[in-house]
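Section 5.1 Outputs to date
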Amino acid sequence: MINLYSTFSSAGFNISLKVLTKAAKMLGRLAPGVCVQVTMGVNQQQSRNMATLKAISMRLKSVKNIQKITQSMKMVSAAKYTRAERELRAARPYGEGSVMFYEKAEVAPPEDEPKELYVAITSDRGLCGAVHTGVSKVIRNRLSEPGAENIKVICVGDKSRAILQRLYGKHIISVANEIGRRPPTFLDAAKLANAILTSGYDFGSGKIIYNKFKSVVSYSQANLPLYSQKAVESAPKLAVYDSLDSDVLQSYMEFSLASMVFYAMKEGACSEQSSRMTAMDNASKNAGEMIEKLTLTFNRTRQAVITRELIEIISGAAALE
């Protein structure tokens, strides 16, 4: 049984049913036509509110489904990140050893060969923050400087190609696909190194641009040096290493390039997984906040519909008296 003295709350306002009953009876006695118009207006408002309730309900269901997806992706990325970090520790000596050779031999870019090659280490997958954008931004800034006509780019992953192709498509000479779906291996790096050496572009120096992993929530863009065999042969302190003829040097250059690409891919994969885990965590929190707001809006709108229905019933009963 409904207590006419109970109070309903609608959008922050307290409405007493007893007051509504007296007002509706008085309105019906004084102006029956006005009461009918009020009832018609309430019907129209009720229809609009019902449509609004349906839209809010659909939106609420959609956001809840998105939250489930982001939470699942966060858990998957956390497992992949643990594996990527473990593999990165084993891959660090490859890149650090190759860079140390260039530093000990004091290899420098040849002055008579201005051509440069930039290798962008990204992947094909998104939803990982600004991991791919940061690498592409470094190359984009370099291509906007003077002397960019002597620079060519090899994109490892579709994300860097998609960012650079619109403005600097003429600088891209090769693109590697199917990167990031599985953890990178040394075989993948060897294939990329072979593609770089057989690209037909005779460069004097260059850089491998990649994301260097720092912590779960931190990474930065770094680069590894690239040199041609001619630049290495003319290094002033190459004589420190014994028994280096042209064949041995060429073999080492191929292995060194594959090692640096492998190290850069491992660093990029670890940074990507940690960034995706953080991005999915933030997305899940944002979805939770949206669910709370939509639930509050849904309840307030539903309560307003109930209050208007009560007003309509009382107004109609008062008009018949």
